Amino acid sequence: MKNRAELNKLFSKILDICFEIHTQYGPGMLESFYESVLCYELEKAGINFMRQVGVKVHHDGKNMGLGYRIDILVENEIIVELKSKMLVVEADHKQIITHLKIAEKRLGLLINFGEAHLKDGIHRKVNQF
């Protein structure tokens, strides 16, 4: 488990890559496109990640099966949830917070590539950080 400084440094690297992608392509592409390019760039940077990670949810001690998928899990520490739409709504924010709690991760990034200015689409989420 990385310490707070290491997580923040990794978070910044992810953001730098996202800014580069958005600068090159801007808004308007499919979410799956941004996910593919981000994963490619993470790989080039030597950053470990897993894509479309299925998370099983337990209820009352019973495995309920697949509850959701994490778009990208970076270094088994940071959940990255990607969007490519005009407006991120409150449900999107709640979704990543729930993902952080269930997956027992401390740091998440909700990023909307659909924004004209990417800085407006970046949302840092924490769980007991």
Describe the structure.
The mean pLDDT is 95. The chain is α+β, with helices and mostly antiparallel strands. Strand 3, helix 3 (90-103) and strand 4 form a beta-alpha-beta unit. The chain has one domain (4-126): Trna Endonuclease, Chain: A, domain 1. It is globular, with a radius of gyration of 14 Å. It has a five-stranded mixed sheet with strand order 1-2-3-4-5. The chain has helices at residues 4-25, 31-44, 90-103, and strands spanning 49-59, 62-74, 78-83, 107-112, 122-126.
What name is given to the CATH topology? Trna Endonuclease, Chain: A, domain 1
What is the CATH class? Alpha Beta
Give the domain tally.
1
Average residue pLDDT:
95
Helices and strands, in N-to-C order? HHEEEHEE
Beta strands, count: 5
Radius of gyration, CA atoms, in whole angstroms: 14 Å
Low-confidence stretches: none
Question: Strand order, biggest sheet?
Answer: 1-2-3-4-5
Report the sheet-strand fraction: 25-35%
Named at the architecture level, the CATH assignment is 3-Layer(aba) Sandwich
What structural class should be given to the helix and strand makeup?
alpha+beta
Basic shape: globular
Q: Bin the helical content.
A: 25-40%
Terminus-to-terminus distance? 12 Å
Major sheet characteristics: 5 strands, mixed
Count of alpha/pi helices:
3
